[in-house]
């Protein structure tokens, strides 16, 4: 009896996605539920060519499925892949692809659950005391950092508004799909990106940023009595992250090694290059905090202290400055002595880094 | 009788837009006739890819080429995806929107591969109906590409060119004739690529794809990682003659060389438009061809983030 389209598709998908190869896939319950054929009889479903058997032809798809997606995950998590080495990384990634097969139309979402998967499958999951940190936390932290960097890179930002004469904060905060569908009709105006111009220099970038993000001078001019009730609206690309390992430093170190390897590769054989061989050593556990933002389409990393993280988190959560400071003092009572001086410097630093869109004052 | 190319302009010789070439294109404004984008890389982007695309779209005609429509799947069509596709098409003033005659997954999964369909009456009805729905949503004719493939189904009852012909007529859609895919599949499935190119409905062919592939001795893999080989150019000459000229695009997706090299490769098409027709050679090799066994078809279209 001929098999219908749905049966054929479900069967073929089960066969080529099986982690142990085509023959195992054909014999799997998932495949046999659709088409109960044995590997030796698969020509009843898939024809052979003059050069290849049906099984060999199916293997092209089976090999491609994992090769393609493993490559994508390596590109999504290059530092983690470098820390583990490709072979070990691929073992984690293979398990991940089976636990979380892609359900999205875009490969950019393939690694969305990787950190969660590492947490769910950590070998010491049932043995850890509350608050205890061990090496799986390092892998999870690196995965979280790399995924967040990817999200900030291609998520909503402030550049479009900065490039437009018609700056409007709500347009910046709107979901990207809406904004991109309503591109300002600015073609031909001086603010329209022009192919004739080279990519903006850093100074040019900062000039543009100042048009849309909160200016440090504006912040400094807020009357002291209005500060407690002021609300700072973060840029849509701001992400705050808390880690159990110093993964931002580790990331920086990896980048240095990679850059050195790139230079090294230009002059000598690459076999001595440590990046990608899993030779980077595990750092000591140490709580660390990081802000990610994006300026001129490049992701920027800003290391934070724990008090800075607490304060910024409260502000991002929508608390006014007074409430956020109270939250900070509650969790860090020792910070009271230096807080006044610190706050002034912090807010100036964050405004200069373009972390806020605007300040909303009472009344 | 339809106008040639379903009424679309012949855009000339274009190149597939890839992230490694962004900087070169923005700085040098190369004299490329048009660019084709991978739709999924831009439809949700709020970052640099979308920004660069919009700059390029100011200067060059843009055609959208998708990899996730999954027109042949028995899963329901993804209307959210279609609406995003439509929005992007409007934003970049896409000349047309294309995808592949394939399915990418079923039961809610996406294999991110372009999987083949059994070529029979049931599939034809299924695909035709879905093309009509997609065209209603997009409010424009869909253009579908013949995929390269590595298996055939015992359930198939017709040739791929026959399927494409009936599908295009029944659904009133356009075709993207990838002559490299025709060649790759002809070697893999032991059919005559010239007969294929001769028999597709030429007035419905809106666009042509060129690409390199990898010879694995027993079969060919569509790797988009090298120059176009002579037998594929011969098929291109045939397609050019039969269609009267169509928008032509080179895909280069792995081991991507500098932009001028990619551009120069598609410009070779000019010579073939003026060359006396010579019968394509059916041999799968060319002088100096590489033989590999671990090639992966349909390379990734993944955008790596930039971070400091």
Give a short overview:
The complex is a heterodimer of chains A (about 375) and B (about 300). Chain A has about 375 residues and is mainly alpha-helical. Chain A has helices at about 5-15, 20-25, 30, 55-75, 80-85, 85-100, 115-120, 135-155, 160-165, 170-175, 175-180, 200-210, 215-220, 245-265, 305-315, 320-330, 335-350; strands at about 45, 230-235, 240-245, 290-295, 300-305, 355-360.
Structural descriptors:
A: 363 residues, three-stranded antiparallel sheet, 17 helices, 6 strands, 9% strand, B: 308 residues, alpha/beta, eight-stranded parallel β-barrel, two-stranded antiparallel ribbon, 9 helices, globular
Characterize the structure shown.
The complex is a heterodimer of chains A (363) and B (308). In chain A, 50% of the residues lie in helices and 9% in strands. By secondary structure, chain A is mainly alpha-helical. Chain A has a 3-stranded antiparallel beta sheet with strand order 3-4-5. A two-stranded antiparallel ribbon of chain A has the order 2-6. In chain A, strand 4 and strand 5 (298-304) form a beta hairpin. Chain B has one domain (4-274): TIM Barrel (Alpha-Beta Barrel). Chain B has an 8-stranded parallel β-barrel, surrounded by 4 helices. In chain B, strands 9-10 form a two-stranded antiparallel ribbon. In chain B, strand 9 and strand 10 form a beta hairpin. Chains A and B meet through helix 1, strand 1, helix 4, helix 8 and helix 11 of A and helix 1, helix 2, helix 3, helix 4 and strand 6 of B. Strand 1 (46-47) of chain A pairs antiparallel with strand 6 of chain B, so a sheet runs across the interface.
